[in-house]
Specification:
This protein is mainly alpha-helical and about 270 residues long. It is built from 14 helices and no strands. The longest helix is centred in the middle third of the chain and has 29 residues.
C-alpha cells in the first residue's frame, strides 16, 4: 500500500512539474512583440508577419495587439503587398479610432493607395497613371487631406499636405496633356472640356494658367465672342503677368507655338475618333 501511495505521489509531482514547465514556456504579449520586432529589425519580414499574427491570436486585446495590426500594415507595405496592407490599415482605423498612432495609419493609407515605394517616399513623380489608378490617386489625396484636417499638429501632416498637392498637380497634368492633344488635332470642344476640368476640379493646381489659355484658344477657334471675353478676363485677372493671353486669342496654332508644342494637326479620321 505504501508503495502504491509513493508511486502516486511521484506521478502527481511529475505532472505538476510538467505543468509548470509548460506554463513557463508561454510567452507574454510583450515578449512576443519583442520577438516580432527583432525579426522586423533584421528584415526577416515573413517571420515578423508570422510573429505578429501569433501575437494577435494569443493576445487579441490590449496595446500590443493593436500595435501589431499597424506594424503588419507597414510590413505588407514594405513587401509591396498593398492589398494586405490596406486591409490591415482599414481594420486599425475602424477598430481603434482614438489610437495615438491614428495619424500614422492615415498617412500610411495614402502611401499604400499610391503604390509608392518606400525608397522613393519623397519623390511622387507619376506623370501618367500606368501604375496608379486614377481612383486610387483621388482616394490617396482624400486620405492625406483627412490627415491634415484631423491631425493638424501631426509630424506627418507637412508631408501629407505636400503629397496631396503633388497628386492634384499630377491629375491636372494628365488632363492638360489631353486638352493639348485635342487642341493640336483641332478637336476644340474636347480641348475646352478638358481644360475646364483642370480649372474646376483642381482649382489649386500649378497648371491653371495654361488651362485657361487653352480655354481662350478653343473659344477663339469656335468663334464664341462673349464666352471668349470672359475667358480672357479670367486669364488676365488670375495671371496678370501672363504671356499666353495674346497668342491664345489668335487661336490654337499660335498658343501651341508659344508653348513649344507641336502644331501638326491630326487627320479627319483621328479627330472623329477623339
Amino acid at each position: 500500500m505504501k508503495s502504491i501511495r509513493r508511486t502516486a505521489a511521484v506521478l502527481a509531482a511529475a505532472m505538476t512539474l510538467g505543468g509548470c514547465a509548460d506554463e513557463a514556456q508561454i510567452k507574454t504579449a510583450a515578449e512576443m512583440y519583442e520577438e516580432a520586432q527583432v525579426f522586423e529589425g533584421i528584415a526577416d519580414y515573413a517571420a515578423a508577419v508570422t510573429a505578429y499574427n501569433e501575437l494577435q491570436a494569443t493576445y487579441p486585446h490590449g496595446n500590443y495587439a493593436q500595435q501589431a495590426i499597424l506594424n503588419l500594415a507597414h510590413l505588407h507595405y514594405q513587401e509591396g503587398k498593398y492589398d494586405e496592407a490596406l486591409a490591415a490599415i482599414n481594420q486599425f482605423i475602424e477598430e481603434y479610432p482614438a489610437h495615438r498612432h491614428l495619424d500614422y495609419a492615415r498617412y500610411l493609407r495614402g502611401l499604400v493607395l499610391l503604390r509608392e515605394k518606400p525608397d522613393v517616399i519623397d519623390k511622387l513623380l507619376f506623370e501618367d497613371f500606368t501604375n496608379h489608378s486614377r481612383t486610387a490617386a483621388v482616394e490617396a489625396y482624400e486620405a492625406f487631406l483627412e490627415l491634415a484636417e484631423k491631425h493638424p499638429l501631426s509630424r506627418f501632416t507637412p508631408s501629407a499636405a505636400a503629397k496631396a498637392a503633388d497628386i492634384i498637380n499630377a491629375l491636372s497634368l494628365d488632363e492638360l496633356r489631353t486638352a493639348l492633344h485635342y487642341l493640336r488635332i483641332g478637336a476644340y470642344s474636347g480641348a475646352l472640356r478638358r481644360a475646364s476640368d483642370v480649372t474646376q476640379k483642381y482649382p489649386s493646381n500649378r497648371y491653371n494658367e495654361i488651362a485657361l489659355a487653352i480655354i481662350v484658344a478653343s473659344l477663339a477657334e469656335i468663334q464664341s465672342p462673349a464666352p471668349l471675353q470672359d475667358a480672357v478676363a479670367a486669364l488676365e485677372a488670375n495671371f496678370p503677368d501672363t504671356t499666353l493671353s495674346a497668342p491664345a486669342q489668335q487661336g490654337a496654332l499660335a498658343l501651341l507655338d508659344s508653348l513649344g508644342e507641336e502644331t501638326v494637326r491630326g487627320d479627319l479620321f483621328t479627330q472623329l475618333l477623339e
